[in-house]
UniProtKB/TrEMBL annotation:
Keywords: Kinase, Transferase
Family membership noted in the UniProt record: Belongs to the choline/ethanolamine kinase family.
InterPro entries, per database record: Kinase-like_dom_sf
Domain of life according to the entry: Eukaryota
One Gene Ontology term from the biological process aspect of the record: phosphatidylethanolamine biosynthetic process
Protein name (database record): ethanolamine kinase
Pfam entry (one): Choline_kinase
Listed EC numbers: 2.7.1.82
Organism: Aspergillus ellipticus CBS 707.79
Transmembrane portions of the chain: none
Amino acid sequence: MPSETTKPIRYIPLSYNHADSHASALRLILTLNPHWEGPGNQIEFVRFTDGITNTLLKIINRKPGLTEEQIDNESVLMRAYGNHTEILIDRERETSSHALLASHGLAPPLLARFHNGLLYRFLRGRPAGHEDLVTGFVWRGVARRLAQWHAVLPIEAASATAEDVPNMRHVDVDLPKLKKDGISVITPQQPGPNMWTVMQKWILALPTATEEQRARRLSLQKELEAMVRELDDGQGLGEGGLVFSHGDLLCANVIVLPDGTDGADGATVADEGTATVNFIDYEYATPSPAAFDIANHFAEWGGYDCDYNMMPTQAVRRAFLTEYVQSYSHHRGIPEASQAEIVDRLYKDVDRFRGIPGLYWGVWSLIQAQISQIDFDYASYAEVRLGEYYAWRREQDGSRAAAGEEMPLRERRWAQEA
């Protein structure tokens, strides 16, 4: 078992400049790897993403005589943060999470931080598409890896302070001191950062310029309060009902490793018919109920277009959870005789949480609609995701059936047996 303490992360006192991408990225990589300068080196930049949320560059040194695998093994990923993303993401906690994951072999090594981003080792493999997520070959690998996260990572590591990560500005908010427009913040059962407090911060960050915006924020706050009363019961897996969750397990954050390779931990080898996968992007990693992390992943089976025909049926969810519990039990030393009961309980919990990702990402999208410059219709996406939550609510309270209305596709697919 790796030590829970990690060595200090190197800090490079430079910034990435979006307007001068090549020169600023080159300064960063040569500061990190001064031996990449001079004859015989051929530095190249491969742009994966570019926008106000993040810029992700793969930096390679195509030295003569090296194979593609050797080049990849020495490559570096540079993630530069976008403007205003501190409203949504605690970058200090993201860095701490990455370092912790790396110490457990669950993330590529973190090489250095700079003023507005991170440098870390490239992870070979291919990002999954949402079509991959619904295939047994991939979802079995996801179930095993996610269970490993939930079983071995300590949730107290998500409560790092500015002192734990030098040179990082502390952006966490003391929620109990906040009260806006009559909103009293929630008090979850477990202290410290978790998915409930994240949602609370996001709701408090919603725009309030108009009466309509203020009314909507108050309405969303009431939904959050109801969710905490109903679901924050401390009864799930982990410590006080919380595990260290990825929080954003969409298809692009699932990396399918090449055949015949081990995972980031260097030990987990997939069986025939099961992919070895790793997870990337830890911006939203925080303690949460395991059922939320799993339900949130299932919500991503529909992809960015929210194709609800792809949602897992009852049989598929139970098979996924059976795989998950076997892996979780292996890492926690839980006897086989207890596993069926855990699957049954977790199945019910995931069902209870199936609407919460819609509320979570719906609020997130309302904020993105105000701050993001990416060419994406966040306002419409917010309505789609919030619609998932309210559709679930109407199933729970029976109002949809009482009104004689047809069950929405997402709920219908979720209720399907096979």
